[in-house]
Amino acid sequence: ASGVAVVGATLVTHPIDAVKVRLQLATKGNAAADSFSISRFLRMWPSLYRQEGTAAFLSGWRAGAIRAGSYGTARIGLCEPLQEAVGNKTVGALVSGVFATVLGNPFEVLKVRLQARPKEAEAGELRALSAMVREEGPQALGRGFQWAAARSALLTASQVVPYAHAKKTLQPLLGHEGISLHLLASLVAGVVTCTVTAPVDVMKTRVMSAASSQKSVGVGTLLRQE
Asked: What is the pTM of this model?
């Protein structure tokens, strides 16, 4: 059930994710001024559509769905058992996030590559994947793993734990447990998760989208440049 839910959510939000990837890869003249800019995000949609059409928003959706099915199932499905095994909710969530990344990283790399360069998806995801492995070697599938694992661990911990706390806090205020409680708790958890994972997510996208011949950007280099 968790895998189906994650895949469904991924397909619905894929266009938003594609725009996010383009924003993360865009060279910015003033990073501080553009940080968390809603107007910049909104302007990117018509700009991408004029330049590339609907392909800019749909490229890599199959890779995204496969990644969601493997990664999402493991991350959510393993979370509770690991929390019980280690006796700590936060640690269990962190570990389940890292395990899930092992399964999903190859498809995450492919998804980010195709979102960054939609023309590579014209021949299909399988050909794009085989071309990437042929040109860069199998190690390309593990590119950016450390950043993806860090993001996954932070995402799971900052999503599951805040959701549980928000639900517990809001329930007495609402007086009942219904859809409104779940939506509000999810909203709180979502804001926390996005804030916590944003810096690591930028690094993950930068590393995964680069070809092996390109020098991987480091945190220090990124801060000096932008």
From this structure: 0.81
User: What is the average per-residue pLDDT within 104-125?
Assistant: 90
User: For the chain, what is the largest distance between any 2 Cα atoms, rounded to a whole number of angstroms?
Assistant: 59
Q: Are 61 and 14 in contact (CB under 8 A)?
A: yes
pLDDT at 57 over 60: yes
* DSSP letters spanning 72-127: IHHHHHHHHHHHHHHT-HHHHHHHHHHHHHHHHHHHHHHHHHHHH-GGGGTT-HHH
Please spell the DSSP secondary structure of 164-175, one letter per residue: HHHHHHHHHHHS
Residue 35's CB: how many other CB atoms inside 10 A? 11
Q: How far apart are CA 62 and CA 69, in angstroms?
A: 11
Other CB atoms within 10 Å distance of the CB of residue 185: 20
**pLDDT of 32 over the 70 cut:** no
Token pair 């593990």 in the structure block, residue: 142
Q: Closest by alpha carbon to 62, among 110, 101, 24?
A: 110
Percent of the chain, pLDDT > 70?
88
Q: What is the pLDDT of residues 168-209, one digit of tens each?
A: 999 999 888 889 999 999 999 999 999 999 999 999 999 999
